[in-house]
Design a protein that fits this description.
Layout (H helix, E strand, L loop, with lengths): L2 E5 L11 E5 L18 E2 L2 E2 L6 E2 L2 E2 L6 H10 L12 E6 L16 H10 L11 E6 L3 E5 L12 E5 L17 H5 L1
Antiparallel strand pairs: 1-2, 3-4, 5-6, 7-8, 9-10
């Protein structure tokens, strides 16, 4: 079954293009440069994540196509491969605790997380100190960003890990994994 999804400006103030995507994102045809699924296309020896935009025929690895990332967040899709996520998926956090900011609002399959930490210089940097945790769809929530130094072009909300007690599974125990544990 396919759904047509229209992405418009979000309630939290982040501007989105009026974009139409068909979900699940299985694009057919040889002309599509970044189809969903595994294995990922490889460009210059690097796997090409689904949310990475193209520019002048080459992937812009340091950028994220915000409309695709938003589609992944809204429809519980993987930002690396573009396919639907299972009941649980993984996110990177800035610190190992409930309420911690998530590095990206979209989650990742376990296999795709291993690809991401291997090839992404940000996620795979031990100095960044990121930790990783398995989440359900309702574990990631928007928290208003009311800081006085917030740039007007930035979203009015940031994504955070909801406290376990506030989820639909309040008795579960959440665990946090280090970069080295995720790589294994």
């Amino acid at each position: 079954m396919q759904r047509v999804v229209y992405l418009r400006d979000r309630d939290d103030g982040q501007r989105m293009k009026d974009v139409v995507y068909v979900h699940p994102p299985r694009y057919k045809g040889e002309d599509f440069q970044n189809p969903a699924g595994l294995p990922r296309p490889v460009v210059a020896g690097l796997p090409f994540p689904w949310v990475t935009p193209m520019g002048d025929g080459v992937p812009l690895f340091r950028e994220i196509e915000r409309a695709k990332a938003e589609l992944c967040r809204r429809l519980w899709g993987c930002q690396v491969c573009g396919n639907d996520l299972d009941v649980t998926a993984w996110v990177a956090l800035q610190e190992p605790k409930d309420g911690s900011p998530v590095v990206s609002s979209a989650a990742i399959h376990p296999e795709c997380l291993r690809i991401a930490v291997r090839y992404c210089p940000v996620l795979g940097d031990p100095g960044a100190g990121y930790v990783f945790t398995e989440v359900y769809e309702d574990d990631i929530v928007a928290v208003p960003d009311d800081s006085p130094d917030r740039n007007a072009r930035m979203p009015a909300a940031r994504w955070h890990l909801r406290a376990v007690a506030g989820t639909s599974r309040p008795d579960r125990v959440r665990s946090f994994r280090s970069l080295s544990e995720v790589r294994e």
